[in-house]
Amino acid sequence: MSARPFLLLAPLAILAACATSGPAVDGRQPANVDAVVDMTPVLRFSPNQLKIKAGDTVEFRNISAFTHTVSSRASAIPAGAVPFNSGQIKGGGTYRHTFTVPGTYNYFCDPHHSAGMTGVIVVSAS
Ligand SMILES: [Cu+2]
Q: 1 in a domain, yes or no?
């Protein structure tokens, strides 16, 4: 009988350990990354619409052979937020940005903006 309390508690301990590793958006993101957006060979951000919370960090991953950017303008992000620009990201490269100001961020890939490579991230207050 003495082993039974341990058998009942062991699954709870495993769940608690998993909970400390952060939210599992898609199982691909490393620690400290809350969401992942791919930059694709068909000149799109995927997903191109994303909802996160203030303070979340998004990792943009270039999974294509093209050079992409993650760029924004002050006129298309919330007042008080600082525009971000990744610079050129070669294939296989990544860029991370932490969104601290709530609101709607419209961003784009500089070389492929006219091809429709744009995205929207909506940041909620908490
Ligand atoms: Cu691009």
A: no
- Structure token pair of residue 58: 């998004």
68 annotated to bind ligand: yes
Q: Which residue has the higher pLDDT, 2 or 126?
A: 126
pLDDT at 30: 74
What is residue 21's predicted lDDT score, i.e. its pLDDT? 40
123 alpha carbon – ligand 1 mean position (Å):
23
Res 4: pLDDT: 52
Residues that are catalytic: 68, 109, 112, 117
CATH number of the domain encompassing residue 91? 2.60.40.420
